[in-house]
Amino acid sequence: MPRFDKTRVEVRSSVRWFSEEMEKKLRRYDYRGGWEECSPDWILARMYDEILELIEAKNKKDWANVIEEAADVANFAMMMASIAQELRGEVEG
Length: 93
Known about the structure:
This protein is mainly alpha-helical and 93 residues long. It contains three helices and no strands. It has a domain at 38-93: MazG-like (Helix Hairpins, Orthogonal Bundle), CATH 1.10.287.1080. 11% of the residues are buried.
């Protein structure tokens, strides 16, 4: 009987599409450098600003902008998770 590989995850098409939207936004600002040196508080403040922009875009029914702002929010959440992973490694390691 074949073993089930719990580490392999099939990525849903909607997740793949959205991750590509996130990557497009990240690449647009590559010239600014990475987020690795940013503080968690700064990242959360920026994510809050992006959430407000997402709400505004949704209220205007500007659906193209909703997608862009949602990618911004998701990128800041990813940055927070990335930093948390580093900090967790420092505590656990």
